[in-house]
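Structure ticket #2291
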Amino acid sequence: MKYGEAKEYPKKSGIRYRLRLDTNNYEVSAGVRITGRRYRYSTGLDTLEKAKAHCLEVSKMSRNTDEDFRAHDKARKVAFNKIGLTATKRGLSTRQIEELSSRIIDEIKPEVELKLLSEVIEDLKADKDLCYENNAIKIRSLKMFKHNYNNVLKEFGDCYVSNITKQKITDWLSTLSFAPKTKDIRYHCLREILNHAIDRGLINENPCKLTKGEYAKYIGKTIWKEPKILSLKQAKMMLEFARDNPKYNLLPFLVLGLYCGIRHEEIQKIEWKQICLVDEKVSITGYYAKGRKNRTIDLPKCAVEWLRIAPHPSKAFYNIIEGEKKLGHWVSKNQYTKQHSKNWMKFWRDCLKANDFPYVSWGDNYENALRHSFSSYYHTYSGYNTQATINILGHDPRNSNLLFEHYKAITSKSDAKEYFEIYL
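Resolution: structure written out below.
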């Protein structure tokens, strides 16, 4: 089956499935006339059989086979026809028509079960637990979802989901004193919770929808900052200091960050067996990679030389000889290599002091600088090969804006060449 090609199943049902390019999963979709709302689902549909089975499940909840839905649709059409006739005969104002419409809609609206926001959140958490058990999400994502749901409940307050209005949501957003990015997370989290309430038939529409103007007013826009990268002198200084001070165990972390642009969360999950210095490649498995995207990165010559002298994290240390790899064990220990950890901050402070550099905060000035430095220097070094840079970084191959907006700083060709020639 070709990527993106949609096929109808069962035939003449209006329910379609297609193979997605980004996740290699199947996506099932159905129109408003089928389910009462736009419907899309792809979680866990990794085979054609599962996709077809889900199509059959959707067909069972079709509006066209539900007498209550059909009756409700007919009543609604009759009601709105009456509104139009009444407005024409009596000459009602716009406000009077709106009030009459609201009253009639309330009368014909099907009764829904009353549930608290906290109950909907618990139900959504149970769904996420099920996704984790079926390997649809990672444990880190599961913890993040639950943490965000708890924050929304704590800040918004518990109430019946049917009583949540757009006015209440905008009032809540106005009281939040967070940065725009955090506000955006809260907003989308509440939106997801209310979408789940729609799926459970608790509400008919999601009030958590802001226009562009409302979004700018109540959430704001994150201020753009130019990516900060390390100079050639700083990169060489850090590599040499890590080499001369093995107690920090940061040389492999630095090499993979500076010369492969790997995310620091991914580096913490890489084992020595994934690094082949003979073929000069490092492999990142989809299980640990962001977005579950497998990728293989070519190691530059300088990175191979630096990794050859990297200490092995076991007592039985042995140097790499031709045709062999360091097997087993993580390249870097998780608890020591995070860029906000005490070990990293101590390394950065001692490194600056040993090289007579004035102290500057890493978090405020060089956050994610290893990955940004690679992006900037490699893009120039490769002859401005945007697609190759995006593939190595693990970004969406169809979107180059992320690279130019948040990752790449301006570098010269001479600096880029010298950057990839920093040897021992």
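Closing remark: Residues 67-90 form the longest helix (24 residues).
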